[in-house]
Amino acid sequence: MAARREWDTLIQGGLVIDGTGTMPMTGDIAIKDGRIAARGTGLDPAKAKDVIEAEGLWVMPGLLDIHTHFDLEVELDPGLPEAVRHGTTTVLMSNCSLGICFGHQRRNGEDPIVDCFARVENMPKPVLRKAADLATWATTAEYLDHLDTLELGINVIPMVPHSMLRAEVMGLRESVSRDPREDELQRMEALLETAMGEGYVGFSTDALPFHFLAEDPNRKTKIPSQFGSYKELKRLTAILRRWDRLWQATPPKDNPAEVFRNFLLTSGRVHGKPLKVTAVAAMDVAANRNLVKLAKILTRLLNSTLFKGHFRFQALAAPFRLYWDGPVNPLAEEIPELRELNEPDLEDREARQRILADPDYQARFAAMWMHGKQGGLAGFKRKMRAEQMAFDRDLAQMVFHSGCPADWVGETFEDVFKRYQVSFGMPDVIRSEEERAAFDALPLMATSPDVGEPYFIIGLFQLYDTDLRWWTISANRDMEVVKKLLTDPQIFPGFNDSGAHLTNMAFYDGNLRCLQLAQADGMERVAAQVKRLTRDPADFIGIEAGRIETGDVADIAIIDPEALKAYDSDAGLKFVHRDVFEHEQLVNRSDGVVTHVLVGGGLVWTKDGFTKAHGTTKLGRALRHRDTGGSATEKIAAE
């Protein structure tokens, strides 16, 4: 007699790394109705409809990506394939004060989604408008209901974003031109309080001083969150503290005193109860080696018995490689002379050309570019890696990728610049007719080869504009430093920025890179890192995820450790055309590393690609905080 089929799926014989941090053990996992039905060894495969043979593979909870901007993509492609394929099953959205929980917010000719997202997250305006057209809800409750209707291929966690909250209450123009009235501040508090009661896990803000709006008349104006006073921030985060919810923050990095004051809001000793804070970002910035040290010191101090905080920086498990479209890039926004070239729309080449041709602009650009390269105090700071700018303007670290003569692809700007300088007296160094034509066409140097590197850069931007694609690594050049950040118990791995910067960066495989680094140190370290990529952030956020105990939702990733060991992330980096965006996107391809991904018990990815269920069947969930019952007042009384 055939055995009764008790389970939908059995994962058999894998090395189970369960997210507790304990050493993994070989075992089986049975799944029924989307949940873990049994765990053990020797479970009978005849009792399962489907069997996944996992011998030699790692079986773990689905990975969490805790810093994403998938809010818009989930409207266009709810399967979120670029996350799923890397073993990620849960993403935290609405970071950096930007999101769509209040709908498109189009009022009085304003288009906040386009205005706020375009430059901060480097997303093309047509893509943003396409997503905004779909955002027809108007309240935080309606947004959650809407997410529940999508055929999610992954779990999504929305937050309430500060910039959108201000725009909702004040209107976009008013939110960046004046302080809120008391009744408006109370309205913000009420909306945030309501959202916490509905199950939102937290609130995101942004204070990085180079995040600007993208539409007229606001192109020289920062996003609304930047205008929130400390009083406003304190009142809004007090609501989070009462509900024990999360504050995701980016710091006002150029003002250390303000950074400390803001992050001191985490202190249970100062404010009576700790506030959970996760902040961007602990990275080893090439131009300023002190930032990563200060981040670690600040974390230790805030979490010490002196302040009793609950504070975590986020870290990226990869070199911070950024691709530039000519002069357009998020790092450019930090530097006024480069920011001017980012203010026009991406398609407005004529506007950039006018700026580049202006002699006054050229002089300012040259002064900026050479700052610290010609001795003096600035030169000493540069030598000691203590500059303020994240982009170090080092030609030896800038690499041609495409949109230029074929001879240049893979070469550094320094290689080409030096060859150009000597080509006037030694024409034999010119490698091809294509290179000769490019050298002849450089508009500022054809008659004056001695004018120096800033004019070489200006010339390239004039000649190629955004057709020129190049990259640089501005942080995390030393992976030993990165490794220490990723293993620091008071820092979370996960500043991947997934879903944003469509053509500038791709760290969708950040969790896999983190595991690859751990793998080199043995299984004990792997088990610890799996915990830090699953259970730890899930507990910090306050959601039911990151676990594979009996009864848990079956969100599971299965990884081939040999393929992970051999994985070369750079080799899998490519530009692809995404039909849902009608635009190009920079992505990773780790195919072969992740052999299976299950979301809600349903198989969405195998080493052969996406399954039929992915993006067509609702398997993911819009996650609420695990404790959504009762008011904040009732919570305080219970405590």
From TrEMBL:
<dbReference type="InterPro" id="IPR011059">
    <property type="entry name" value="Metal-dep_hydrolase_composite"/>
</dbReference>
<feature type="domain" description="Amidohydrolase 3">
    <location>
        <begin position="50"/>
        <end position="213"/>
    </location>
</feature>
<dbReference type="InterPro" id="IPR050378">
    <property type="entry name" value="Metallo-dep_Hydrolases_sf"/>
</dbReference>
<protein>
    <submittedName>
        <fullName>Amidohydrolase family protein</fullName>
    </submittedName>
</protein>
<dbReference type="Pfam" id="PF07969">
    <property type="entry name" value="Amidohydro_3"/>
</dbReference>
<dbReference type="InterPro" id="IPR032466">
    <property type="entry name" value="Metal_Hydrolase"/>
</dbReference>
<dbReference type="InterPro" id="IPR013108">
    <property type="entry name" value="Amidohydro_3"/>
</dbReference>
